[in-house]
Amino acid sequence: MQFDLFDSEKALSVSELTAQIKTALERRFATVCVEGEVWQPSVHRASGHIYFSLKDSAAVLRCVMFRKRVQRLREPLEAGLKVRCFGTLNVYPPQGQYQLVVDRVETSGVGALLVAFERLKKKLQGEGLFDAERKRPLPRFPRRIAIVTSLHGAALRDIVRTIFARYPARLLVLPVRVQGEGAAAEIARAIERAQRIPSIDVLVIGRGGGSLEDLWAFNEEIVVRALARSAIPTVSAVGHEVDWALTDFVADVRAATPTAAGELVVPAFEDLMMTFDDAAQRLEAGLRRRLAHQRLRLGAVRGRLLDPRTLTSSYRLQLSHHLQRLRLTIGGTVERRRRALQNLERALGVFDPKRRITNERAALERLTSNLVRAIRQRQIEARRSVAEVEKSLRTLSPLAVLSRGYAIVTESSEGRALRDVSELEAGQDVEIRLHRGGATARIEAIRGALEDEE
After folding, report:
1. What pTM was computed for the model?
2. Tell me: the pLDDT tens digits for 176-199?
3. How far apart are CA 235 and CA 205, in angstroms?
4. Rounded to whole angstroms, how far apart are CA atoms 94 and 116?
5. In terms of domains, do 89 and 26 share one?
6. What is the number of domains present in the chain?
7. Beta bridge partner(s), residue 171
8. Cα–Cα dist 195/127, whole Å
9. What's the alpha-carbon Rg for the chain, to the nearest Å?
């Protein structure tokens, strides 16, 4: 079918052109078989239809499977499932899009990479590496940005071009391989190396679009964990908007494309200038309003203020009055203190400490002399008393009686003085004390005192 689109006499409407395209495609591709991976399947609750896409390394095809056909499926359609879909192409005029209306699906097995993707994603999610609480905001005005990507890829050119067009930041490129054997280890080492470089404000990792196999380095556990340990805020920009990598989940910010990453990490210089201009205008307006308000207040206060010269004159008179009172008060106080000092000097002359000390010392010497004389007289009187007592004691002493021929008889055992013959017994030993010396005697005969008197 041919279309004369350049016929100036007859222009096609959008509906007519779309109808012709719809007819051409549906006739040309009446029955097709398409192989690919199921991507983003969704069941419409009301109708029961399944909407999904078939995806390979380079393209995505929208598909729909109506409810009657869905009921014939042997197993549900899951993301990552490799299938062959049989159906017809259909054009949906309201949106100008084409899609595959699927009549029958043959499964060819689950994609190994997608299974590994989902398994590792579930594991890391269980460890909390994807939690929103871990996400950090990007600095608003970064000065130095590190980029981990291929040195020869379009992603680096997109990021650099976008950043330099928006903001004057310094860029540090850490070149790595982004696919193939050993790429994941290089990316992880580059992330760790960036941590040791001072003054890095933002770390961007990513690459351009591709198949799941091409993007797989950014799904490796070693890369995801290295990104999770980063002390620098991170941005993951892997593939196109429909592509997802595990680094997108663990990074602080996910960019749909490398170009979007450049827009996210730096502000637009023009936007900043507009913001500054707006802020300056608002500040100027605010200052003007504040100045006008202060002028009104000043005018109101000025009306209540007195002439400073009047206030000064009044205060000068008050000060003069207070100075005069102060002089009188100080003069009177000084005169009173002078008289008091003179009185103290006279009193001190009368009660001269040196003279008083001399008088007291003379009085002390007199008292000392009198005390010595009194002590000596007391000693003489005490000697006399002692002599008289001694004389009386000698007179009354039993020893003085013994000198006149008498003797004292005592028991030998107890030393008790014997005064009566009734205290004696025949054969008893006694002690006899004479004026000079003594003797031990034994009683042989006892005579009564009365008989002796007769």
Report:
1. 0.43
2. 999 988 999 999 999 999 999 999
3. 6
4. 39
5. yes
6. 5
7. 145
8. 23
9. 66
